TrEMBL record:
Residues 24-163 form the HTH marR-type domain. PANTHER family: HTH-TYPE TRANSCRIPTIONAL REPRESSOR YETL, TRANSCRIPTIONAL REGULATOR, MARR FAMILY. InterPro entries: HTH_MarR-typ, MarR/SlyA-like, WH-like_DNA-bd_sf, WH_DNA-bd_sf. It holds the Pfam family MarR_2. Gene3D superfamilies: Winged helix-like DNA-binding domain superfamily/Winged helix DNA-binding domain. SUPFAM superfamilies: Winged helix' DNA-binding domain. This is MarR family transcriptional regulator.
């Protein structure tokens, strides 16, 4: 129930003055679409995690290492820890799990004797491409079908929506999984 006419009939929280029933129906349709997308995204993430037998943080780490490798950069334990916003001890335990599961390899860093290079195994890369990669390609296709004007509008809407949510919980920027630049090698 995302309809404020049902959940907040006295307008104590959601002010809807100036919106007629048709406009309210449109707003509710958008909110219900967002809710369906969040649920779909959650189920897809859980299915991928179960399929690969990994937790969400492990999956985020693998996506980071794959993206780093795709850009010709070297993923290090420190870069993984910074990206995930976790301690170096937690990172070591996670990398141990991923290595034991055959998902990553730790190699000598080619230019820094004090560091390690982290690489995703070919089998894990292939599995991620077949599951998460193909799902992303389908989402990309949906967005690509929009006109340029529609993409700008949707992007602005999602950015504004994210900003309201972040402001509501006292945050000023996306968390450690935000879409920031990849680390330097």
């Amino acid at each position: 129930m995302l309809d404020p006419r049902v959940m907040d009939p006295d307008q104590e929280i959601v002010q809807r003055a100036g919106l007629d029933d048709r406009e309210l129906d449109e707003v509710v349709r958008v909110l219900e679409g967002l809710h369906r997308w969040r649920e779909t995204e959650r189920r897809m993430s859980e299915a991928s995690s179960r399929y690969m037998k990994l937790g969400e943080t492990d999956m985020r780490a693998l996506r980071f290492v794959i993206a780093t490798q795709n850009h010709g950069l070297i993923a290090t334990p420190g870069a993984v820890a910074a990206h995930l916003g976790i301690s170096s001890a937690s990172t070591t335990k996670m990398l141990d799990r991923l290595a034991a599961g055959g998902h990553i390899r730790r190699l000598a860093h080619p230019t820094d004797r004090r560091s390690l290079a982290i690489e995703v195994t070919e089998e894990t890369r292939r599995t991620a491409r077949e599951s998460v990669g193909k799902a992303h390609a389908r989402r990309f296709d949906v967005v690509a079908r929009l006109s340029s004007r529609e993409r700008v509008l949707v992007a602005r809407f999602l950015e504004d929506l994210s900003d309201t949510e972040l402001a509501g919980v006292g945050l000023s920027e996306a968390g450690p999984d935000g879409a920031g630049p990849l680390p330097a090698p």
